[in-house]
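hiii, so i know i said id send this last week but things got crazy w the move. better late than never?? heres the sequnce for the chain we talked about at the cafe, plus the structure i predicted for it. fair warning i was half asleep when i ran it
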Amino acid sequence: MQSKLKQVRDFLGRMILKFSLLIALLPSKVGIGFAYVIGKGAYLFLKGKRQITLRNLELAFGKEKSNAELRKIACQVSQEICRYWIEILQFLHFPSRFKIEIKGQKNLDMALSQGKGVILVSAHFGNFPLMIAVLTQKGYKIKTIMRHMHDLKSDKLFCQLRQKLNIRSIMLQSRQVSVSKCLNALRKNEVLLIQIDQHAGAGGIFVDFFGKPAATTSSPVIFALRTGAPILPVFILREAEVHNIIIEPNVGLYLGSNKEEIVKKTMSKLTKIVECYVKKHPEQWAWLHKRWKGEERVKGI
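okay and structure toks below
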């Protein structure tokens, strides 16, 4: 049953991308309404994703929120994700429809003036593809780290969509190849965007996220230690009909007696920043991923 639902989900995703122009032609309010209907349906029918979302919300908020509140947020998450993709398709064809403000742009400009590249740390929060596309349009040379999708047809279509938006990606391949490409981008004084909010498995370190240990990538700090590139958190937050891109000031590396301590303390601080955004606007974070896995401590890359 789960495999059939996945096939249906992937098929619908491919159809939406193939008919992107028709969807983009919809008036904004109609497009948003369409997205919310699809999102509500996905919440109701994709039981596996719904269960993961609700479980994550329970782990994060515990008794802080009632079951009814958690279910409401879970449904909103599904609706917001669908809205983001409709917005991306509309932005691709009609960018003037959108009101987007960038706050803290001088932080990014000051960091780039050092000539060591910049590491932007972010999360699957808000319409992050829109954020990358907008910053790219502003002239910033951004490369974002991504994984290939399991569904090859969907992966191909999403790759084409990223190309249309001029989003440049470093696809995760072998460790040596991916690390080399990331370091080269920074040494060319480009911007490397890393999302740190997903389970990192054996390649991560455990830091607290909502008070519980979560395996987290250590790559932002590793790259900063090797290149001297500053680390800036960046997020996109939708407030009413305005998308605010918020670029935080440079987060300096914590001083420590050894590399492991520096990595641990700095990633803890960065993860805490992500947590603060998610806590204030839980409906805008992708809770569909199994963020908390495993018990044993693992080493960083």
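btw The chain has one domain: 2-284. thought thatd interest u
miss u guys!!
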